[in-house]
Amino acid sequence: MRLASLTATTVTISTAISGHRKMFNTDQEVHDDKLIYIPFSDGYDNGFKSDTDDPKLYMSTFKQNCHKTLTTIVHSLAQLGRPVTCIVYAFLMSWAADVAREHNIPSVFFWNQPATVFSIYYHYFHGYKSLIMAHANDPEFTIHLPELPPLKIRELPTFLTVTDPGHLHFPILTSLCEGFEALDIEARASTLPKVLFNSFNALETFALASVNQMRTLTVGPLMPFLFAGAVEGVSTDLFKNDETDYMKWIDTKREGSVVYVSFGSLAVMKKVQMKEMIKGLKESGRPFLWVVRKDNREEGVLLEGGEEGIVVQWCSQLKVLSHRAVGCFVTHCGWNSTLESLVCGKPMVGVPQWSDQGTNAKLLEDVWGSGVTGKVDEEGLLKGEELKRCLELVMGEGEESMRIRRAAKLWKDKALDAVKEKGSSDVNLKAFLMSIN
């Protein structure tokens, strides 16, 4: 959307049919001013069903199916007089770079996780794999990667500690390897910037220095409400907002008093963890808004907030985080959620689950200083008293609490500076557009 607002060139967004349906409720091509949405088939047009579909089979056929359908789209656009001049592809989609290379089309990798995580993967595949694999079962072992802060094994992306080829996540690590191999090929063959990050220079200067072998540009935070002239009318929510009028409820609360809790669109919380969350939230004595999807509501767990709490199935996260009454975000530390909280100036309590989330939690606490990470027990459970402790640390009146809130405000200002006219991300994105036009 940001690209479309900055260039006269038509931007075509192509996503799997199942994802396209969630945005538009149709399988057909959709035109929206300078944006065109064209779905492609990944072989699972009704979406991947985690309870019935075989993830290994999906990963093994995904590349073949998508390569074929994207090739068809490229040919069709050329026949319509709309030739593709650049392909920007995302995480786990290196097959798109293969299609681009086969058609002599420049390609660029868009990385929608922190540049730090990209740097970790880069060094894993360029000299550090053996060291990390050797200590994969020692969560406290510390790794020192070029220019990055020291990282314990438990703070690395979880895919890197998968050693069993039969593990559910092993195919993801294989796809990541293919992605970095594609980048190496492209980096040797072109002067075009090869990686775009949904981050900004001030946030991850050290990570950018860590991969100075690659051609990189930070162009974030990429959030439609930050940009004047951004294309409107397309929802980015994966689920419908809850009918509960939660915003009216938040309006009645004093500034900085509400705890907002959400663990994203994928995480599934066990019954025992839900009970501990309820305990911690209620014992904190602070009003809370908690998002619990309908498919994650365990029988036997009473999800009622009482007078000081409200539980909804889904909500407009940016709208909530932007509200004056919200004083803390309890989050799984997915990158989108982390970045949204930074942009809105809200301190966080991190409860990472998997993938890049442990790294993101490390950054928010030890590097950016805008939050804390909840400590789990031997079973991986965040106890209610630990949640209460973290909330007090972030929202209390002590010196450390004030420092965390000042840091959150600082990063909000820096994020807004990055995307404004002549800010670092604004300059980088315009430079990228000039390089492909």
Q: How would you describe what is shown here?
A:
The protein is of the alpha/beta class. It has two domains: 2-235 and 421-436, Glycogen Phosphorylase B (Rossmann fold), CATH 3.40.50; 246-416, Glycogen Phosphorylase B (Rossmann fold), CATH 3.40.50.2000. Helix content is 42%, strand content 13%. It has 15 helices and 15 strands. The protein has helices at residues 2-6, 17-24, 55-79, 94-102, 115-134, 170-189, 205-210, 246-251, 271-284, 317-321, 335-343, 357-367, 384-395, 399-419, 424-436; strands at 11-16, 30-32, 35-40, 87-89, 107-111, 142-143, 151-152, 195-197, 216-218, 258-262, 288-291, 309-312, 326-331, 348-350, 371-373. The strands form four sheets. It has a six-stranded parallel sheet with strand order 12-11-10-13-14-15, sandwiched between helices. Helix 3 runs parallel beside helix 4 (94-102) and helix 9 packs across helix 13 (384-395). The radius of gyration is 22 Å and the shape is globular.
Tell me roughly what share of residues is in helical segments: 40-55%
The class by helix and strand makeup works out as alpha/beta
How many strands?
15
Q: Helical segment tally?
A: 15
The first-level CATH class name of the largest domain: Alpha Beta
- Which architecture of the largest domain would the CATH scheme give at its second level? 3-Layer(aba) Sandwich
Task: Write out the CATH superfamily name of the largest domain.
Answer: Glycogen Phosphorylase B
Mean pLDDT: 89
CATH topology of the largest domain: Rossmann fold
Largest sheet: 6 strands, parallel
Query: Low-confidence parts lasting 5 or more residues at pLDDT below 50?
Result: 228-236
Instruction: Tell me the span between the first and last alpha carbons.
Output: 17 Å
Largest sheet: spatial strand order: 12-11-10-13-14-15
Global Rg: 22 Å
